[in-house]
Amino acid sequence: MKEVPIYNAEKTEYIDVCPVCHLVWFDANEFENLPKIPFDELPSNNLSPQARESVALAKLEILKQTQEREKIGSSTPDEWWELIPAIFGLPIEYNDTQLKYKPLLTWILSVVIAIVSVAAFFNLEETVRNWGLIPAEFARHYGLTFISSFFLHGGVFHLVGNLYFLLVFGDNVEDVLGKWRYALLIIGALMMGDILHIMANPHSGIPCIGASGGISGIITYYALKFPRAHIGILFRFGFYFRWVRLPASIMLFFWILMQFFITYLQMGGFSDVSALAHLGGAAVGFVFWLIQK
User: Fold this and answer.
1) Structure confidence by residue, pLDDT tens digits, 210-233
2) How confident is the model at residue 55, as a pLDDT?
3) Which residues contact 164 (CB under 8 A, 6 or more apart)?
4) Phi and psi dihedrals of 234, rounded to 5?
5) Which long-range CB contacts under 8 A does 287-290 form with residues at least 24 apart?
6) Which range is least confidently modeled, 1-15, 35-49, 69-83, 148-162?
7) Which domains does the chain have, with CATH numbers?
8) DSSP letters spanning 227-267
């Protein structure tokens, strides 16, 4: 970062500007301390070239923040097809971050999950009983059920939902972490999710399946790494429908609250969804974000 002076009659303020990407960084209260003068009225003859550039960048940043604030809350979809997944409760990602690399690992993992799950549908009950994670028998098949359960799903909607989240959010996370760290995130998230699920009821004989534990780690890392990315959802309350956009960080907050509520239902025997597996995966995603930020 390079310090660029902003001149005014009383005091010269210095702001940080990246000479490569032209990112402007304001420290605490720094923006508020800048002279409250309309940009068009600034005495340009008293500004250095660096200051003129910083003013232009500041104007662009203000415009960008204004546009982002206008998009938050009630809105409309950008494309008509976004309503299709939204009707089924799936979120729409609005993230302008360009990928540097092709998300090959995400694509390959999605194909493998789809193939294994579809193949298992032809004899689902027996496959789940043999290869699902059973807390009371977690050491079966030399512990391979920790991994095999990740690739099994209880139905088409369960499979499509998990693949959707993996493909939508996994590409950005893989691009940031790289393939090896991305793979470690998924493995760590699914293992922690399985462990918490076992600890909740170690004597249970009910198999647990699904990739949502590992994908929860991806979702959490994504929301923390791209907190200002907007997520669009179709809010429904009875016959009331409203398209809403919220920052990914806010959506993560509500998602975590929902997982705690489902955990309460799960511990009381009122839910078959393993929200503890989701929370375990989310915890690993949070740890990866702390390490990589």
Assistant:
1) 999 999 999 999 999 999 899 999
2) 74
3) 85, 90
4) -95, 105
5) 288/177, 288/181, 288/185, 288/188, 288/217, 288/221, 289/220, 289/221, 289/224, 289/225
6) 35-49
7) 2-71 (no CATH), 77-292 (1.20.1540.10)
8) TT-EEEEEEEETTEEEEEEEEHHHHHHHHHHHHHHHHHHHH
For residue 150, give Cα distances in angstroms to 46, 145, 180, 205.
64, 8, 18, 17
Please report, as a single letter, which amino acid is at residue 10.
Answer: E
Render the burial of 256-292: b for 16+ CB within 10 Å, e for the rest.
beebeebbeebeeeeeeebbbbbbbbbbbbbbbbeee
User: What secondary structure letter does DSSP report for 98?
Assistant: P
| Residue 208 bridge partners (DSSP) | 133
Mind listing the pLDDT tens digit for each residue in 266-289? 888 777 788 999 999 999 999 999
- Annotate 72-86 with three-state secondary structure: CEECCCCCHHHHHHH
Do 182 and 236 form a contact (C-beta atoms < 8 A)?
no
Q: Are 166 and 109 in contact (CB under 8 A)?
A: yes
